[in-house]
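Project outcomes to date are best conveyed with an example. Our students and postdoctoral researchers have been running inverse folding experiments weekly, and each run begins with a structure described purely in tokens. The record below, which covers 130 residues, was selected by the lab manager from last quarter's runs and is presented without edits.
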């Protein structure tokens, strides 16, 4: 089961991550001033992710890692984890298209920093975890 995890950051902003059934982050949202803003983005993703209202822009880092951004109306709403191959990135997109509509939303206690150094951990994990 995939979930959205909403967390208040140390700077007072809110962010959410969408994780796959194994608990690996698929994408991380932009920072929001209010928790309600995160919830609005999550609700919009749930309702419209499969209706071409969101744009998936595929990108590549200077190191050759692949990732995608989710945007609507020109505003980037979330950035994915890094992937080693195009196939694994496309599997990540397919995963979220399939599981976002039914994903639960959980709120993490503000003491837990789930947005720490996740990029390094994710780059080291195998792409087959999606």
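After processing, the design step wrote out the following sequence:
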């Amino acid at each position: 089961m995939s979930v959205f995890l909403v967390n208040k950051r140390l700077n007072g902003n809110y962010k959410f991550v969408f994780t796959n059934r194994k608990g690996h982050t698929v994408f991380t949202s932009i920072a929001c001033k209010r928790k309600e803003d995160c919830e609005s983005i999550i609700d919009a993703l749930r309702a419209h992710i499969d209706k071409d209202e969101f744009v998936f822009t595929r990108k590549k880092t200077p190191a050759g890692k692949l990732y995608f951004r989710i945007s609507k109306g020109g505003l980037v709403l979330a950035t994915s984890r890094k992937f080693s191959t195009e196939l694994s990135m496309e599997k990540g997109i397919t995963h979220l298209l399939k599981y976002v509509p039914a994903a639960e939303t959980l709120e993490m206690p503000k003491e837990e920093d789930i947005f720490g150094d996740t990029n390094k951990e994710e780059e080291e994990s195998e792409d087959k975890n999606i």
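The chain has one domain: 3-108. Residues 35-48 form the longest helix (14 residues). The training component of this project remains on track.
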